[in-house]
Every structure is written in C-alpha cells, then in structure tokens.
Amino acid sequence: MATFLSRLGRFSFRRRRLVALLWTALLVGAAVLAGRAPAAPPNDFSMPGTEAQQAYDLLGKSFPDLNADGAGARVVFHAEDGKVTDPGTRGAIEDTVRALGDGPQVVRVTDPFATRSVSKDGSTAYAQVSYAVSAAELEEHSRAALQETVEQAASSELSVEAGGNAVEAMAGGHSSEAVGLGVAAVVLVITFGSLLAAGLPLLTAVLGVGVGALAIRVLAAPLGLGATTTSLAVMIGLAVGIDYALFVVSRHRAELARGRDGVEAAGHAVGTAGSAVVFAGLTVVVALAGLSVVGIPMLTQMGLAAAGTVVVAVLIAVTLVPALLGLCGRRIGPARPRRRGRTTDRAARPAMGVRWARFVVRRPVAVLLGGTVLLGVVALPAASLDTGLPGDDSKPVSTTQRRAYDLISDGFGPGYNGPLTVVVQADESGRGATQAAKNVAGRIDGRDDVSAVGPPRLSASGDTAVLSVVPDASPSSTETADLVHALRDPALARASDARVLVTGTTAMNADVSQKLSDALLPYLALVVGLAFLLLIAVFRSVLVPLKAALGFLLSVLAGLGAVVAVFQWGWLGSVFGVTDPGPIVSIMPVFMVGVVFGLAMDYEVFLVTRMREAYVHGQSPKDSVVSGFEHSARVVTAAAVVMISVFAAFLGSEEQILKTIGFGLAAAVLFDALVVRMTLVPAVLALLGRRAWRLPRWLDRLVPDLDIEGERPGRSSHGGGTEVGDGEPVAAASGRLHGN
What we know:
Blueprint: H1 2-14, H2 16-36, H3 51-62, E1 72-79, H4 87-101, E2 106-109, E3 124-131, H5 140-153, E4 158-163, H6 175-192, H7 195-223, H8 230-257, H9 262-289, H10 297-328, H11 352-362, H12 364-379, E5 387-388, H13 400-411, E6 420-426, H14 433-445, E7 450-453, E8 457-458, E9 464-471, H15 478-487, H16 490-496, E10 498-503, H17 505-539, H18 543-568, H19 573-576, E11 584-585, H20 587-616, H21 621-648, H22 656-688, H23 697-702, E12 723-724, E13 728-729, H24 730-738
Parallel strand pairs: 5-11
Antiparallel strand pairs: 1-3, 1-4, 2-3, 6-9, 6-10, 7-9, 8-9, 12-13
Helix pairs in contact: 1-2, 1-9, 1-10, 2-7, 2-10, 4-5, 6-7, 6-8, 6-21, 7-8, 7-10, 8-9, 8-10, 8-20, 8-21, 9-10, 9-17, 9-20, 11-21, 11-22, 12-18, 12-22, 14-16, 17-18, 17-20, 18-20, 18-22, 20-21, 20-22, 21-22
C-alpha cells in the first residue's frame, strides 16, 4: 500500500499541472451537471417499522382529505386587553382566517369560533392551517405568505403568533462554517508559520466539499437523496479534508527539512502520511455508512453522502495535495527549525510535545489512572441521559414559534401543543368501528394524564375512526411519552375489539427516539468491530486497536456526560446560552458516535503510525512513543483545535439543537484528542512495551502486510537498496516487529 501511494505521490508531483487540471475539470463538470440536474426530492421523513408510521399510512388510505403528512401551522391569537370574542377583536380574527385560507398551497383553515378553539378565560384562540404538501415540499413563497399575514394581523390590541412545521425556516446560511474556517486558517498559520502552507489544506478541503456537494446534487434525483442530505457531508467533508491535507503537507515539509528533494519528499509524504490518511478515511467511511443500520431513511442518506465526501477528501489528499506541493515548489518551504535560545553552548530545549511524552512514559500508571478517572467523572451524567425530539418549546423566546407555544400553554394547557391522533380500525370491515371508537374514547377520557378527548370521526368506508387525544403534559415530557405507551397497550385494543394505533407528531417523535435508542448499541458494535479489524491490519497488533476502541468509548461517554450536564441539567447554562434545559435531541448519541469515532480514529492512526514507524526503524518502545510525539503531536493538536473550533462555532446559533450538536462534538473531540490520544495512549503504550506491537503467529499469517509504517517507501529510489529511513535493513525491522 505504502509503495503504491509513494509512486502515486511522486507521479502527482511530477505531473502536477495535469493532476490539477483534472481536478479542476472534475469540479467544473460537476458544477455543469449539477446546474442541469432536477431539483432534489423532498426529504423522506418516513420511519419504517414504527407504529406511528403504520397509523399515518392507514390514515392516508382511510382519510385522504386529512392529508396526515401535510405541512401545518397553528396561528394563535391573544387579546392583550379584553377577550377574543369582543366584536372588534373577533372581526379581526375572522378577517385573518379568511386571508390565511387564500394563501398558496393551503387546503383548509379552521375557524377558532366554529371549532371552539377558545380558551376558558376568552383571552386566547387558535386556527389550524393545513397545506396540500409536506413541510419539505412547501414552497418558500407559501411560508412568506403565512408570515406576512401573521405580521399584518398583529396590533397593539391583538398578538398573533404562528407555530408548526410550516413556519420552519429553510436551511440558513453558512455563518458557522465561515467562523470555523476562519479559526482554522489562524491555527494553520500558527502551525506552519507560512501563509502558503496554511492555505493549501483550506483550499483542498473547500474543493473536496465542493466536488462532493455537487456530486450529491447530480445524484439526488436518480438516487432519491433528500434536499438536506448535504448538511452532514459539508460538516464532515470540511473536518477531514483539512485534517488529511494538513498531515500530508506537514510530512512533506518535514521530509524537505531532512534534505530530500521535492519529488522524493512528496513520495515519502504520501507513502507514509498518505497511508495513514487512507486507513483513517476508511474508518470514517465505516462509521458513516454504518448509520444505515438505524433504519431511518434520511439518516442513511446523510451517512452515505458524507461517506462519499470523505472518499473525495482522501483522493484529494493523495493526488491533488502533492500536485499543489509541486506547483508551490520551494515556496512551500521545509519545516522551520526550532529557534535556539540566547545561550548557544547548550542544546535547544525540546518541544513541548516531547517534554510531555517523556513525562508520561516516566509515570505511565499515574497518568493513566488520572486521565481515566477524569473522563469517568465527566461521563457520570450520561447515565441520566433523557432523549427526545424537541419542538417549538426548545426554540428561543425571540421566535414566533416559541411565543405561539407559550400562548397555547398558558391559555389551554401544554398538552394542546402536541395532541395525539388515535386510529381505531374495526376487526370486521364495515361493522363496529363507531362503537369501538366510542369505547376507546371512554377509556382514554378517564385517565388522569389526559386533558381532553375529541369526538370520533368515521371514514367513508365505515371501518376506521380517528379521534384526537390531548395530553395533560407537554409534548416533550416523559409523562406524554408514557401516555403514548399506555395507549398502545394491547389490553385497550382487546377491550374494544378493534385495532388501536397512536400517531401524530408527538407519537412519531417518541417512536423515533425509541428507534434511535434501540439502534445505538448495534451501531456501536458494528462500527467499533469493523474498525477494530481494520486497525489490526494497520498496526499488526491486537492490543493497540483494543486500546483505541476503549479510548473512543471513554471520549463519547465523556462528551455525552458534558451534554447532559449542560443541556439537560442546566449546569453552566448561562455560559452556553441554555435557557430551557430539557431532553437531549434523540439523534445526538448516534450522531456523536459516528462523527467522533471517525475523527478519533483519524488522530489514533496519525499519531500511532509515527510511533510504530519509529519502533520498526529500531527505536525502543518508550523512545518510539517520544519520537511519535516529536513528529505528530503538534500537528494532531492543531487538527483537533481546528475541529473543536468548527464545532464550537455552532454555539453561536439561536437553535438549541445546533447548540447541542456543536457543544457535544467539540467536547468529545477535546476529550479524545487531548486526554485520550495525547495522554492515555502514550501511557498505555509505555506500559505495554514490545507487547503492544506483537501479533499472534496464526493471526500474522492471516492479516495482510499493508506496510503503513512506510518501510518500502523509505528505500532509496535510485538504486533499489534495502535500507529503511535511517539505514536499518528492512528484514531486520520486519523481523523484530513480528517477533522473529
């Protein structure tokens, strides 16, 4: 592998204009095709296998006029003084209802006075707006018309707010990505001490994301990729694109500093750092593609699209990066030597990474225990993780959705913000549906956790009825989730001689949360298991991959613990802008596992391959740990700081979900890079000694020799010699490694 990549690096360096032209042509071609491609289809929000989805499908057949999966908005009216039933106020509300009915794509608007949707004190009323299409298909001018009508209806006497999925704004700008790129640029300049060297990883990362996003746009219609599929691809593409180019450029400059010419430096950089990039990329692809096991179509699409973008980032790192290094020539410069102090009669002080590595290998037990205890303490809150899919109650109080939610809660009760839809299907078609629905309604109405039950509505075929159930608690509360499970108790269906299904947005959220929770352990086992096998081939060791997997679990648990403490318990909430602590968004644990696992394995491969390379080339186990830090610690730290900055930039968002994701990923990367990889890894390797690099003989015969440490690229290319890096015979290095 390393030999092939070394040749590829030298070819790309020599044929730099051709390689750069090919990538430019690919970008332009993708842009042209994307411009001609049909629009991406709406996102597939179906949840196969859930009861809520089954009920939605049944409603679509039995009550086509309900348009159960269509977009909706709830427009709330609140009289500042007096009541909404006062003649002047009532007239203004009725005019607004008529204006809402004239909006584009609107199929029905309820009159709050006809449906008795007026609070007991008469201060608040609401109208329900239903659209002919789903929220994903709702056109922007329909949203704009709704917003304009609501704003025009508001006055000093009447407050008018709107909530629901029809009010949701489409994907916003990319201010967070821009902030992250700005911080990345600063970190890269500090790391390289050169604007040109710092700009190259940014350029290639943006190019890779561009190619990947355009390819997704081209394939959207043929493959049915949803409109928001590119969101994860852009985030991950920027992260790994910067990382991969950073490591290749850093290794190239280090080889120039050792006296190699440009071609050989590029070949050696791609053969060694490029090998690490390839296998790090494979672990990320495994983690992202593994999202398909969750069984949620939209999540599967996002994972596969992001995996494709990672593949593009890897290809750019091993082809375009050496080509651009060739175009830059000597201007890219070798790595700058460390500045010596004013006293010239003593050696320069070792780098901070070297000093830290020497400290760790001298006291591995204390460092290992200290780091593990620290992560364990931070991870403790994760045991109380409570997940859910937040709605309008999680939005900032400055938004109309949140204000509408609060008005409904104050005027009617929190449960009115998320009513449940109960579908009753008679056992025998055409007979008993009405009576069965009445029986179900009577049993539900007597519950303490139910605020109201609407009258049953019979389908045209007469075999299915639907009724609305208003919980007593808020939609995101555990009490409402318990109510959903209680209504699905088979005893209720048996007592009514009918099939009873519970759906609605609240029930769907509960099903999604449960499905994500159930999929977390299988997903974790899949990605960790496959990566474990891959890392055995990379490091030709069992203990090193095992250590990597255990360290990753510590990082994820610590990250989840920090998220629970801040966003669920409210600790330091004022610092991070958390105004209403509550359940953690259900997708967060699975999402964190996938993203953090990929990045954690990046740092593991980049750092440990340099240690293994030093060990193969003759250094002792402890010296190889120090050597690995000497060559990689600065770059790994820079890469981690870049990623933390990119993710932390989302803390500036007003959306609680984005804040949670940004904080969680930044915290997990911080713990993994600085505590696990830079602290626990050297401590464990120092304790294991030579045992860390051993592979059982029977397994050694089965595992292919991938040569990731770069033995063969290190040979002289002029005479086909047999020496590695510093002159050690390859056979001796290989024999020592495998215990021969």
